[in-house]
Design a protein that fits this description.
Blueprint (H helix, E strand, L loop, with lengths): L8 H10 L21 H12 L16 H21 L11 H11 L6 H7 L3 H15 L4 H4 L7 H14 L9 H11 L15 H15 L4 H13 L2 H13 L4 H32 L4 H27 L16
Helix pairs in contact: 1-2, 2-3, 2-10, 4-14, 5-12, 6-9, 6-10, 8-13, 9-13, 10-14, 11-13, 11-14, 12-13
Length: 335
């Protein structure tokens, strides 16, 4: 993956430093543009810092991953991002472990009146809109499951075993061709898109990056181990029905089974994962750490809120007749 063009003074300074061998540098002074979740410069800078823990960038020395100057900047960006999340996601109160399942179900049920993106994709989206949607989702789906996997060594007992069970399915049960990230690559190729990792990083807006940044924030910090479990639980609880609609939309547009397979796989797998996540993973963790049930609910609330904000962004742009991506016109790799 290549570094994308900078989006402001923070990414300009960061990318300038990353182009050189690891060294001590002064983080740029805070210069934030508007609400954190809409701040293109902030979200891209934070995503770049986190990406050094994943696949990295072709022109960036791997030694930057734990560089103290880089970590100092990342901490500054994280604080701003955390404040932004807190501003739009009220922190749920802790509940007794026995009530956690009901509380999670109530959080999910409260989002039912959100923007009907999945229904639009099934009934009305044209092939260009589907390509845009897939480009947005590629930022996460090409490394699907990786952010939540950071939590495995921070758990014990049944909660740990349950997370491993879910993640093993995400990684194809030991079969590379069945990894969900590989299934998504097939979807991208079938839609005429570039399936290389991070190919569209420069095209997606702040809200799309914020979805990935929340996962990395929760996964990389032990203090958020409850939140990352709640985040994953919300993902699994809200996956099956939308993915069925995405598959139906692609079928309506004449796409074959290989293009739809990623979504069809999630209809069945995530229905099972939902029960594992609710009862075995979150339930066991809550029983062992009753003081952290509020964190579990907060992680779930963040996942739901960010997805709603993303859907609102996409639908608002499409209703106005414009692209939901940052670039106007055709995106590289789209016919």
């Amino acid at each position: 993956m290549q570094l994308p063009p900078p989006r402001g003074p923070i990414t300009a300074r960061l990318f300038e430093a990353l182009a050189r061998p690891p060294h001590a540098f002064s983080p740029p002074p805070p210069s934030f543009a508007g609400p954190p979740l809409d701040d293109e410069d902030l979200q891209l800078a934070l995503f770049t810092c986190y990406e050094l823990h994943y696949h990295g960038f072709a022109q960036v020395d791997d030694g930057w991953e734990w560089n103290p100057s880089l970590l100092e900047l990342r901490a500054l960006l994280e604080r701003r991002f955390e404040h932004g999340l807190a501003a739009v996601v009220p922190r749920p109160s802790a509940v007794p472990p026995s009530q956690l399942r009901r509380a999670l179900n109530e959080l999910v049920a409260a989002e039912d009146d959100g923007p009907p993106l999945a229904t639009f994709m099934r009934q009305q989206a044209d092939i260009g809109q589907f390509r845009e949607f897939v480009i947005h989702r590629s930022i996460y789906h090409l490394k699907e499951a990786d952010p939540h996997t950071w939590a495995i060594p921070r758990l014990q007992g049944r909660a740990k075993a349950s997370l491993v069970e879910i993640q093993a399915d995400e990684y194809g049960g030991g079969r590379p061709e069945r990894m969900h990230s590989e299934l998504f690559r097939a979807t991208m190729r079938g839609l005429g898109l570039d399936d290389s990792y991070g190919a569209y990083l420069g095209e997606v807006p702040a809200v799309t990056l914020a979805i990935g940044n929340a996962m990395s924030l929760f996964g990389l910090h032990r203090r958020y181990r409850g939140a990352v479990l709640g985040h994953l639980a919300a993902f699994e609880m809200t996956s099956s029905l939308p993915n069925a609609k995405y598959s139906q939309g692609l079928r309506r547009l004449g796409c074959d089974a290989a293009v739809r397979r990623f979504y069809d796989e999630h209809v069945q797998a995530d229905a099972v994962h939902e029960q594992i996540a609710l009862n075995d993973m979150c339930g066991s963790f809550a029983a062992a750490h009753p003081a952290l049930t509020g964190d579990i609910l907060y992680g779930a609330a963040c996942a739901l809120t960010l997805d709603r904000l993303f859907a609102s962004h996409v639908m608002d742009r499409w209703r106005s007749g414009s692209t939901s991506l940052r670039e106007t016109g055709l995106v590289a790799g789209m016919p």
